[in-house]
Amino acid sequence: MSEQRDNGIAGVDAGTDSAGGDPAGRHPGGFETLAIHAGQEPDAATGAVVPPIYQVSTYKQDGVGGLRGGYEYSRSANPTRTALEENLAALEGGPRGGRGLAFASGMAAEDCLLRTLLTPGDHVVIPDDAYGGTFRLFARVAERWGVQWSVADSSDPEAVRAAVRERTKAVWVETPSNPLLGITDIAAVAEVAHAAGARLVVDNTFASPYLQQPLALGADVVVHSMTKYMGGHSDVVGGALVARDPALADELAFHQNAMGAVCGPFDSWLVLRGLKTLAVRMDRHCANAARVAQLLQAHPKVSTVFYPGLPEHPGHEIAAKQMRAFGGMVSFRVAEGEEAAVRVCDRARLFTLGESLGGVESLIEHPGRMTHASAAGSALEVPADLVRLSVGIESVDDLLADLTQALG
Ligand SMILES: *Cc1c(COP(=O)(O)O)cnc(C)c1O
């Protein structure tokens, strides 16, 4: 993706569209600059350099229908959420534009998306390696409303092509995937989806917009759990959609308001604060994860390491093409099996045993019994000897020492 290589990252001259970037062109458009400034002009009344938390439900009208800035009720729009939504559009949409929408959680964003895109009888292709909650949403919720789904290995565009049907309306991919760090060629799968008349949805949670910008590669909608790297401090739950096509974005915004699972003002503010440091945090997450992957690869008690930065990883070349760096997530299989994998999780100290990911602190978990327990018995079942790490930004030597002692 030459745009990313030439000028740092696609999106550098955001500001050509009204929804993203800085329409007035006041800011140079480097990613870090946009993360700190897009959607966040100093407050007009006070000059406050950070958008206030507009903890309010309703707004005085100047005569019936005389809205100030379009605000009438905070489910429909709230200024703190608007600041975040404009920031999301700038970071993911880039020069091609796009509109950001912020939700109460990643799952709320996914739910809004699937109810906007699909009607009973429609079909979705989902990946064979996906966030457990995404699988559960299709298998246990959407299916009851008549949505058909089937599973394909999205790292193989031909497998996706074979899975599409007449009523396929969406192809859903996650790259890097959770928890096996599989890589999907976004541009290749976009072509397959579009040839079938379907939209390509990319869950970009693991990469974050700093490492990868799917809309620039042909995706139609990007999904995020802002709970993870975007928030970055394990202190907020939120979700996002960024859509490229304005007509689809309008439909999504209609559903966001009609269904109502919006991101609250304080949560929006926390995510905005997190986004300001996304680039520097991701750089350190990536550097630390690369060291952790090397350590694990050389360890006799580890049978397989899943990290797209390793040259042996089957998706390494594609990851190198479509990502700025390889991310902060590392998974591995413990040679002695499931009980040994659980023991590693129990013995880790600096790596905190817990679900979630993407915060500054390192986390360890056993996907089979924790995050992916709901996929047991399905095509998305994960190996029982798998351990997943969210490598934080602590001193890397401390992280390596903790893993060494935990592996015994
Ligand atoms: C956590 C996560 C989600 C769901 O987001 P929530 O904020 O927990 O609702 C979706 N996709 C991926 C890849 C995730 O890691």
TrEMBL record:
E.C. number, please? 2.5.1.48
Per the record, the coiled-coil ranges are: none
Q: In the record, which positions carry N6-(pyridoxal phosphate)lysine? A: K228
One Pfam family, short name: Cys_Met_Meta_PP
Protein keywords: Pyridoxal phosphate
Task: Please provide one cellular component term from the Gene Ontology annotations of this protein.
Answer: cytoplasm
Q: Which cofactors, by name? A: pyridoxal 5'-phosphate
| Keyword Transcription appears in the UniProt entry | no
Catalysis: reaction(s): O-succinyl-L-homoserine + L-cysteine = L,L-cystathionine + succinate + H(+)
The UniProt similarity line reads: Belongs to the trans-sulfuration enzymes family.
Q: Under which name does UniProt file this protein?
A: Cystathionine gamma-synthase
This chain's source organism reads Streptomyces cacaoi
- Source organism phylogeny: Bacteria, Bacillati, Actinomycetota, Actinomycetes, Kitasatosporales
